[in-house]
Amino acid sequence: MLVPIIGSDDDLILLLFQRTHSVLEHKGEICFPGGSIEAEDRNVTDAALREANEELGLQRADVTLLGQLDDVHTIASSYIITPVVGHLTRMPELICDPLEVERPVIVSLRELTAPGACGTQWLEWGGVSRLRYYYDVAGGRIWGATARMLHELLEVWFGAR
Q1: What are the Cα distances from residue 125, in Å, to 56, 75, 130?
Q2: Angle 127-132-136 (CA atoms, 0-180°, nearest 5)?
Q3: Beta strands in 9-117 (DSSP E)
Q4: β-strands 140-143, 80-81: how paired?
Q5: Which CATH number fits domain 2-113: 1.20.272.10, 1.10.10.10, 3.90.79.10, 2.60.40.640?
Q6: Hey, how many other C-beta atoms are within 10 angstroms of the C-beta on 73?
Q7: pLDDT tens digits, residue range 10-69?
Q8: What are the extents of the domains in the chain?
C-alpha cells in the first residue's frame, strides 16, 4: 500500500481514491493505492509502487520513498497491509483505472489536522470491541484500516509517539 504525500512543507496533500462498487472487496471505500504482492514484485515496496501505477498512473520514478508505517491488520477481510510512505514533489497527471477507481480523493494535511476532522467510535467485531478512527473529509468518510494508517502517519509526522 502506497501512502502518497504530495507537495511542499507548507502545502502537503495526501492522495487516496474511492473504490468502485465493481471491485470484489471494500466496495466504495476510500483507500490508499495498493494491493497484493504478485510474483514479479520483489517486496512490499515494489508491490505498492506497481499498484499505485496501475490504479492511479503514478510513476515509480516520481516517488521518493520515505519509509514504512506499522503493519495494519484488516478486521473483515483478514489482510495484513504494510503502508509504504512516498513523496512526490507535485501532483502528477492521474490516469485512473475505471474498474477500481470511482474518484481520486485529495486531502490536505491542514484539513486532516483541523479540529473535529478525526472522530472515534467503538466497533464490535467477533465479540471484541475496538476503537475505530474515522475522518470525514473530501466528501466522504475515511475509516477502517485506511484511517488507522492515516492516524499513525499523523502521529509520526507530528511527533506524538
Answers
A1: 32, 8, 8
A2: 145
A3: 13-19, 30-31, 64-68, 72-73, 80-81, 84-88, 101-108
A4: unpaired
A5: 3.90.79.10
A6: 11
A7: 789 999 999 999 887 878 899 999 988 999 999 999 999 999 999 999 999 999 999 999
A8: 2-113
Q: Can you list the positions of beta strands (E) in 7-161?
A: 13-19, 30-31, 64-68, 72-73, 80-81, 84-88, 101-108, 118-125, 128-137, 140-143
Instruction: Tell me the C-alpha distance between 155 and 161, whole Å.
Output: 6
Q: Which of 11, 12, 4 is nearest to 58 (CA)?
A: 4
Cell of 140: 466522504
Name the pTM for this structure: 0.92
d(CA 43, CA 134): 29
Query: Rounded to 5 degrees, what angle do the CA atoms 23, 26, 30 make?
Result: 105
Per residue in 69-127, pLDDT tens? 999 988 777 889 999 999 999 999 999 999 999 999 999 998 999 898 999 999 887 88
3-state secondary structure of 87: strand
